[in-house]
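Quick one, probably user error.
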């Protein structure tokens, strides 16, 4: 049985490989992949396996981004630190999920389940990703040390990219790094409440306290909580920004 592991933390990947050896199954780990980018490259190069053991949060994003971008049609056992409430969204469609730290007996049970379902099964893993995104568009997952927390969209004042890293700033003046790009967030967050004003900033309408004219036909915003840098609506965004404001006022 060929297995590919998606796991961004080396010690977790090594422990999982050791547990697989202890299952007594004839298992060959064909690849250990730590990121969405490397996963896409592996799949583009024809990578395949009988079974995928997949951590949800990878080093550069979550696994559902990879699933959404590919036609991945491989059976998956999720290995994750997510809470049970989140997991219920896709438990029925996946082979199984294993909460970290992974227990050997639970791993054996999950693999046995896969073997029993293997022949007649044709999983559509993309449906899992779609259900996950549809359910979780109102909040973002952030990783702090070895813990995950959710930031609800109504808590987000603005998102700023600094030195290529997006940070979310909340109304209670907290700051968290994100694994998501602004391009991705534009499609996830409610466009009625959020607007991308330039390449670095996306703002919540409730964070805007004042709008003033700025040179070169641009606008400058005063936000609450205050941003460290000037918050400028780029010239090419001014018209659509005004239309967005008018749509929210009406």
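Nope, works fine. Designed sequence:
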């Amino acid at each position: 049985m060929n297995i590919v592991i998606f796991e961004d933390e080396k010690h977790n990947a090594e422990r999982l490989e050791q547990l697989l050896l202890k299952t007594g199954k004839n298992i060959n780990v064909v690849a250990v992949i730590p990121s969405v980018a490397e996963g896409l490259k592996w799949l583009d190069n024809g990578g395949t396996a009988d079974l995928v053991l997949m951590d949800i949060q990878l080093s550069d994003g979550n696994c559902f981004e990879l699933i959404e971008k590919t036609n991945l049609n491989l059976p998956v056992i999720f290995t994750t630190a997510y809470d049970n409430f989140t997991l219920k969204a896709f438990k029925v469609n996946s082979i199984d999920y294993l909460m970290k730290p992974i227990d050997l007996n639970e791993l054996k049970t999950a693999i046995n389940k896969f073997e029993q379902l293997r022949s007649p099964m044709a999983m559509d893993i993309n449906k899992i990703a779609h259900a996950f995104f549809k359910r979780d568009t109102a909040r973002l997952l952030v990783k702090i040390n070895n813990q995950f927390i959710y930031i609800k969209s109504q808590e987000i004042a603005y998102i700023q990219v600094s030195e290529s890293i997006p940070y979310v700033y909340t109304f209670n003046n907290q700051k968290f790094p994100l694994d998501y790009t602004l391009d991705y967030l534009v499609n996830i967050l409610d466009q009625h409440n959020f607007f991308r004003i330039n390449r670095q900033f996306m703002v919540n309408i409730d964070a805007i306290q004042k709008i003033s004219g700025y040179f070169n036909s641009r606008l400058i915003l005063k936000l609450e909580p205050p941003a460290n840098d000037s918050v400028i609506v780029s010239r090419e965004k001014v018209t659509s920004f005004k239309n967005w404001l008018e749509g929210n006022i009406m």
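Helices lie at 10-22, 36-44, 63-69, 84-87, 104-117, 125-136, 182-188, 238-249.
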